[in-house]
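the two lines:
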Amino acid sequence: LARFDPAVAFARYSIKHSCAHPSQAQYQSAASLLVVLHEGSLSFFSQQDRETPFRLTSTLGPIEELLSARILLLEWLVEEECVLCVGEDGSIFTVGREGEVDVKAQNEDGIAGASLSPTQDYLYLLTNNRTLIQLNKEFDLVSEIPLDEAEEVLATQPHFSWRADASHFVINYETVNGHKALTKDQMMGTFISPARSDPKEDGLVQSVSERGKKQMLGLVSWQPSGSVIAGVDCQLKAGQKQHRVIFWEKNGLRHLEFNLPTDVS
Amino acid sequence: VVDLFWSLDSSVLFVKVRNTEGADWLLMYYRANYHWFLKNTMELKREDICLSLSCEKHKRHKLLIIGGEDFQIVEYSIHHSEKEWKNLSEELKDKHQFQYFIDGPTLHLTDLSKCLMPPPLSMLKRSFDSNITAFSKADNNLLIITEKKVHLLDLPANEIIF
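prediction for all of em together
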């Protein structure tokens, strides 16, 4: 038997640059490229390999389309070699390395949240009229479903998180009864487990909850190599709020949790 | 709670939080033995964006913190120190663990490295002429004080023979 005593060693160094007020950033490991959105401009930083420091290769902008609405999604498209941007106003466009803007689509209802699958095959949008939309690489509509027929969905920004193999994703959104986190497959079917839920919950386990939970907060993150999904909830203990990180499987089965420091607001 | 994300190898969970004073902190949690441990904390500026980076060489992991004026790259590595684990009986095997108890004029001694015998049982016992008031052992000597006499006994090396 061996007793593991993990220790974590840290080193910290900084590289000077100027990206005033960065609002979005994305690192594309396949291209060793970092894209930073700051005040309507895009800065590109690259590495020769993963061991070398980032170097600023170019800065584009300010670009009008990036200034006109809050950008919800920023992703470097590896095959097309351009940046995909999704704006809160429903605009979907790409920005090339020379700054050329190509408008791909426009959703009239406006967009509450967006996510690109890890394989970059599909783009998922939650519109402000609570519809979940799936677009393909050509930005053509593949599928469109109401996100929730049981409860009214609020127009707050949802959080998406993908399983590393791109087969499933979890979407955490707010309803009038609180937050819900649903596990969906790539074709937007809700994952239904054969396991039975708690008798008080009734029916089959579909995800973390069949009903919105007041205690649950909006964050969600799928463990890259594992089957566990992390989220956050907030319990009232002795009149004080206690934030916790909670874990569950894609079928909603809860696993462990831990308390965050009590001074977390 | 502002953000929640994993390291790319799934070993570390990062939680970005805002405390009641409005300061942002990055908390780094590591799981071992079915328990989550807070391993490190870093103060962040409000606009800092954190990204996990992959890094394969020397099992070093990287966290990129993008601020307004600089990138901070935090390198961290997780070491597992492996120790040979022994259970209690194995630990005791190599050394004598004498336990004693006194029952009036009778001294009971047990070497726990050889057998686990709880009172009132004992491995060895010896009765004296009157009630025992004190007992001490140092190296191979036993000091027993009774109401009438003081007994000093020499023992053979690593043995208890009355």
